[in-house]
Amino acid sequence: MNRRINGKTIIITGASGGIGEQMAIKVAENGGNLALIARRVHLLQALKEKLTTTFNCKVEVYPLNVTDYDQIPLVFTAIRKDFGSIHALINNAGYGIFQEAHETSFQDVKGMMDVNVLGLMACTGEVLPYMREQGFGHIINIASQAGKFATPKSSAYSASKHAVLGYTNSVRMEARRYGVKVTAVNPGPIATDFFSIADETGTYVKNVEKFMLDPAFVAGKVVDSLFTNKREINLPRWMNIGSKFYQLFPSFVEKVGNNLFFKK
After folding, report:
1. Torsion-angle region of residue 187: left (phi > 0), alpha (psi -120 to 50) or beta?
2. First and final CA of the chain: distance in angstroms?
3. Which domains, ranges and CATH numbers included, belong to the chain?
4. What separation in angstroms does the CA of 105 have from each of 93, 101, 109, 159, 240?
5. In sequence order, which ranges of the chain are alpha helices (DSSP H)?
């Protein structure tokens, strides 16, 4: 059991499936208490039952779409009332749609920005003043390698994750003075139902299936970083190397990799 996590209260958004669900399991395994946020209430309730039956932890569920900005303060107030303290927030809610820019509707662009960026900022804004006051806390934002290395058919999604990284980096420097840790997580493609929306044709999944990350593996890396000074988690390692190479030689990478990138 991880002593850093044992007895702490962790909020996870987007907790009803994928790495959100897997992170909840990992936190419960280590004795943490959980406030689970998502839209799909029946899945949250099933996860709560599973965790409370298997582990000695407190779990509460909070139905919320993070784009319902007026509801976010009410939910976080309820969490503080139910748990007393908030020690960590993992901003995991998000989605993507893989289309060329001219094919992507403004409604879809706005949807990705509302969930991936503004929802994340709104949730962070609810815990940050409290964590600063208590002099302790950890905020983990699930971004993406797409936030470092944009490719065709992901213009709006990449833009949203670039925004998440910019926000995270700024908040990290601000919060450090008050004992609050901030970590960005930049995974490559993960084998979850994310692609049921992002890749309706199945083309991208077919092309990268053998490279996809296991959600339990990613969740383990994130949960292991709780209450440490980890600045970033970049997975897989080879993709992060590619992102760094792109930052150094963008023209070369765009020219040489152009055809490959369009396999998305």
Report:
1. beta
2. 40
3. 9-261 (3.40.50.720)
4. 21, 8, 6, 15, 30
5. 18-29, 41-54, 72-83, 106-112, 120-134, 155-175, 195-198, 203-208, 215-224, 237-248, 250-256, 258-261
Helix (H, G, I), strand (E, B) or coil at 90: strand
Q: Using only the alpha carbons of the chain, give its radius of gyration.
A: 18
CA nearest 253: which of 144, 146, 149? 149
For residue 102 the two structure tokens come to 């001219």
**Which residue's structure tokens are 């806390």?**
137
**Token pair in block for residue 169:** 């980096």
**Positions in the chain whose pLDDT score sits under 70:** 190-211, 238-240, 242, 245-246, 248-250, 252-264
pLDDT of 208 reads 56
Name the one residue in this structure whose structure tokens are 């909840």: 24
What digits encode the pLDDT tens for the residues 103-135?
999 999 999 999 999 999 999 999 999 999 999
- Map residue 38 onto helix, strand or coil: strand
Catalytic-labelled residue, pool 157, 167, 204, 246: 157
Query: For residue 131, which phi and psi values (nearest 5 degrees)?
Result: -65, -40
**Element housing 142 (H / E):** strand 137-142
130 is catalytic: no
What CA–CA distance (Å, rounded) separates 147 from 36? Answer: 26
Rounded to whole angstroms, the Cα distance separating 96 from 111 reads 9
Q: What are phi and psi of 157, to 5 degrees?
A: -65, -45
Q: In this structure, how many other beta carbons lie within 10 angstroms of the beta carbon of residue 107?
A: 7
Question: What helix, strand, coil percent values describe the chain, rounded to 5?
Answer: 55, 15, 30
